[in-house]
């Protein structure tokens, strides 16, 4: 099944097929600031399965080895890439045309969460 998504203005689209690596909520301070939200949810897609359409995403090196992509027209955050995780791109689930197609497996960087953000019980916490 093909999954598609796009930025707020529709200038940049993406599509991917096949299984994803993981789906997680991220609570790290960098992701919170990049999205102006208390957490964000990513789906990790192997680069070989990902295709972009429309305009070219702009990129920002938010920290050493980390690149965040966004639409230069509307500002929507599009992706996260980390040199320590080669071959995969983390897309924002909320940009998908069917965000309900992916259920988060757990929480990442839970130790950085805002105090009032409580995780669901029985979830995986890779970095906490």
Automatic annotation (TrEMBL):
Entry keywords, A to Z: Lyase, Metal-binding, Zinc
Domain of life: Bacteria
Single GO MF annotation: metal ion binding
Keyword Zinc assigned: yes
InterPro entries registered for this protein in UniProt: CENP-V/GFA, Mss4-like_sf
Domain CENP-V/GFA: 3-111
SUPFAM superfamilies tied to this protein: Mss4-like
Pfam families in UniProt: GFA
Family of this protein: Belongs to the Gfa family.
Protein name: CENP-V/GFA domain-containing protein
């Amino acid at each position: 099944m093909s999954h598609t998504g796009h930025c707020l203005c529709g200038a940049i689209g993406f599509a991917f097929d096949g299984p994803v690596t993981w789906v997680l909520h991220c609570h790290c301070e960098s992701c919170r600031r990049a999205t102006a939200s208390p957490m964000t949810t990513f789906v990790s897609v192997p680069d070989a399965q990902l295709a972009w359409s429309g305009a070219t995403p702009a990129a920002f090196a938010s920290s050493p080895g980390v690149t965040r992509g966004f639409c230069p027209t509307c500002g929507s955050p599009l992706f996260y890439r980390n040199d320590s995780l080669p071959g995969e791109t983390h897309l924002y689930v909320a940009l998908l045309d069917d965000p309900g197609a992916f259920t988060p497996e757990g929480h990442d960087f839970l130790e950085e969460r805002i105090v009032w953000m409580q995780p669901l019980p029985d979830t995986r916490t890779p970095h906490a």
